[in-house]
Write a structure and sequence with these properties.
Length: 260
């Protein structure tokens, strides 16, 4: 099992060259970024490749994701922006695009226009050889709907979202057999406080996380989705220390999974 960490986790002021160095020093071999990020380009891919790092996934834009379920131009434009993520995955041989189904609460109702757009997305991704992995957010309904309707869809388990958006719900018993990728991060399990802390720095039960990943026989990338800027927890930590702490946490969780 390889370990990964998202680009710009510490600061977007760090050069890609320096980020690649810090990733390599701490055992990370995989990464990801938003598909509409200017960093997803030939130069970045080349710099990372020289350090032995490749993109495991991309993350589709989601700023107006609710419009996918609503009639109007915004929804059509949103579909095009997600499809652009599929194109970039295909171009750089990235197997998975992570996609949200809604944002905030309450989510828009499941609708015919939404189903039509997501069907177009699934068909386009299939033509490009890219897997769409839908991520758990604040509601169960649209996720269960998508995974039931679209047989080729995968599941992206986000441990942090589970902890702060739906603290009384566990997604792996429901969708673990569809798991394609993970977003591993921690928080204080306080509603709507999505801190993206390093694993073991918050209150999420990573013994359970390890057990559920082991039970699902997950052996793909253990991907951290962490953001120093989402809290003041790491204000006094230098980049070198942050990446070391991240690498240690990822390796610790990996060992826990392998021991189950």
């Amino acid at each position: 099992m390889e370990i990964g960490i998202n680009l710009n986790c510490y600061s977007n002021e760090l050069s890609i060259e320096r980020q690649a160095e810090l990733m390599k020093e701490n055992g990370f071999t995989k990464t990801f970024d938003m598909s509409d990020s200017p960093l997803v380009n030939d130069e970045t891919v080349g710099i990372l490749k020289e350090a032995g790092i490749t993109f495991a996934t991309l993350h589709a834009p989601f700023s107006k994701i609710n419009s996918m379920w609503q009639v109007g131009e915004d929804g059509d434009k949103m579909l095009l922006s997600i499809a652009d993520g599929v194109d970039k995955c295909a171009k750089y041989n990235i197997p998975v695009l992570v996609v949200h189904l809604s944002s905030k609460f309450p989510p828009p109702r499941i609708s015919d226009i939404g189903n039509e757009r997501y069907q177009k997305l699934m068909d386009y991704a299939a033509c490009k050889g890219v897997t769409i992995a839908y991520e758990n957010q604040r509601t169960l309904s649209n996720l269960s709907y998508a995974l039931e309707i679209f047989e080729a869809a995968g599941f992206c388990w986000d441990t942090g979202h589970e902890g702060c958006f739906t603290p009384n719900r566990q997604y792996m018993p429901l969708f673990g057999d569809r798991l394609k990728t993970v977003h591993i991060h921690d928080n204080m399990c306080e509603f709507d406080k999505d801190l993206h802390l390093l694993p073991f720095d918050g209150k999420i039960d990573f013994n359970r996380v390890a057990k559920q990943l082991a039970e699902a026989k997950y052996n793909d990338v253990l991907m951290l989705e962490v953001l120093r800027s989402n809290s003041n927890f790491y204000d006094d930590i230098f980049a070198e220390d942050y990446y070391k702490r991240a690498g240690d946490a990822a390796k610790r969780l990996k060992e826990m999974i392998e021991k189950v």
